[in-house]
Specification:
This protein is an alpha/beta fold and about 350 residues long. Helices cover about 35% and strands about 20% of the residues.
C-alpha cells in the first residue's frame, strides 16, 4: 500500500449523548476528530501507511489526541509537540427538522500557532504517494496557511499527488479571505474535492443548480467542473451531491471529472443518519484509496460514495470500516442483514 500524508488539526469534540441539547446535559461525551485526521484514519483502515502532521501540546490532553490516532493505526511520527492548547469543538446532534450545531473553541491552538521550523516537510514527503489537506487548515490562522503552502511546495518537489477538500467554514473566515488564500494554493493541487458551496465560496465557481431546493442534477455541475479544471489544471474535479431532507435523512451521491469524461455515482438514501460529522472526510479518504488502487475513476468514486454512506451510520468523526465492507455496499449489498 501507499504512504499518505495529511496535515491539519485534531480536536477534542464534546457532545451531549444521543440528540440531547447542550443546555439539557451535565456531561459531554469525549470524541476525537478533525478533517484531515479523519481522512488519515480512513486511509489507515484501508491498509495504507497514513501519516497525520500537526502540532499538539506536551500535556496529557495532547497525548490523548495522539493516542486516539495511534489506536486506529495512524502514524504520528511527524506530530510536533508544544504549544498551549488542543482545539475544542462542541457538537449537538440534530434530528428530523432540527439541524446539528457546532460551536468552535479552537483559537490559539497548538497547530494555529505552529511555525515552519516545527516541521521538516521534505523529510515528511519523502517516499509519499499522496498529500491531502483541506480548506479548514489555512482558515485556522495565517501561520497555518503558511504551513499549508510549505507542505504543498514540498509535496510537489517530491512528485507527490496533492488533493484538497475545499471545506469552507464560515465560522473561521469570510469568502473574500478564503479566496485570497485558497486560489493561489490551487497551483499545487491535482485532485480538487468539494461541494457546490465550497466551490463558490473558496474559488468563485457557482453551479447551475438550486441545491437548497434539493436539486442536485449533475448536469448543473459540468460547466464549473470544466472551468475549474481549465483554470487550475486539476487532474480530477470531484463533488459530493447531498440532498438534505432533514437532519437524519439525506440523499447522497457524487460526481467526478478527469478532464475528458464525467462519471456520476449511484445514489444512496441514508435514513436514519446516526452521525454525519466526518461524512465528507470519509469520502475524501475513500477517493484517495480508490484513485490509488483502482483501474478507473468510476470504480474509485463508487468506493468513496459507499464509504461515506457507511460513515453516516457510525457515531463519532472517524469512519471505522474496512475495504471489504465498503466494497460489499458498493457492490449492492445494502440490506443490513446480520453477518453471522
Amino acid at each position: 500500500m501507499s504512504k499518505i500524508v495529511t496535515l491539519g488539526e485534531i480536536m477534542l469534540r464534546l457532545s451531549p449523548r444521543d440528540c440531547f441539547r447542550f443546555v439539557q446535559v451535565d456531561n459531554f461525551e469525549v470524541i476525537w476528530g478533525g478533517g484531515e485526521a479523519n481522512v488519515a484514519v480512513s486511509c489507515a483502515n484501508y491498509g495504507h501507511d497514513a501519516y497525520f502532521v500537526s502540532k499538539l501540546p506536551t500535556h496529557e490532553i495532547g497525548q490523548a489526541a495522539v493516542n486516539a490516532l495511534r489506536r486506529y493505526g495512524v502514524k504520528t511520527d511527524h506530530i510536533a509537540r508544544g504549544g498551549d492548547r488542543v482545539g475544542i469543538y462542541y457538537c449537538e446532534k440534530g434530528a428530523s427538522m432540527r439541524p446539528s450545531k457546532v460551536i468552535y473553541d479552537r483559537a490559539n491552538s497548538a497547530i494555529a500557532e505552529a511555525n515552519p521550523e516545527d516541521f521538516d516537510f521534505d523529510a515528511i514527503m519523502e517516499g509519499a504517494s499522496w498529500f491531502h489537506w483541506s480548506g479548514i487548515t489555512p482558515a485556522i490562522s495565517d501561520k497555518a496557511a503558511e504551513l499549508t503552502r510549505l507542505a504543498c511546495e514540498a509535496a510537489k518537489r517530491h512528485g507527490v499527488t496533492v488533493s484538497v477538500d475545499l471545506n469552507f467554514r464560515k465560522k473561521l473566515w469570510t469568502k473574500e479571505k478564503a479566496q485570497s488564500i485558497m486560489r493561489p494554493l490551487m497551483q499545487y493541487v491535482d485532485v480538487c474535492i468539494g461541494n457546490e458551496e465550497d466551490a463558490e465560496l473558496c474559488l468563485g465557481f457557482k453551479p447551475d443548480a438550486d441545491v437548497e431546493a434539493g436539486e442536485t442534477n449533475a448536469e448543473g455541475y459540468k460547466g464549473i467542473f470544466k472551468a475549474m479544471a481549465k483554470e487550475f489544471d486539476f487532474k480530477y474535479v470531484i463533488s459530493t451531491l447531498r440532498e438534505s431532507f432533514s437532519a437524519t435523512h439525506n440523499g447522497w451521491k457524487a460526481m467526478i471529472y478527469n478532464g475528458e469524461e464525467f462519471y456520476e455515482s449511484k445514489r444512496y438514501d441514508i435514513n436514519p443518519i446516526i452521525d454525519r460529522v466526518g461524512g465528507g472526510d470519509s469520502f475524501s479518504g475513500g477517493i484517495i484509496h480508490g484513485l490509488l488502487t483502482m483501474d478507473n475513476q468510476g470504480d474509485a468514486l463508487e468506493f468513496a460514495v459507499a464509504a461515506s454512506a457507511l460513515k453516516h451510520t457510525i457515531p463519532g468523526d472517524f469512519n471505522l470500516v474496512s475495504v471489504a465492507e465498503v466494497e460489499s455496499l458498493a457492490g449492492g449489498n445494502a440490506n443490513g442483514r446480520v453477518q453471522r
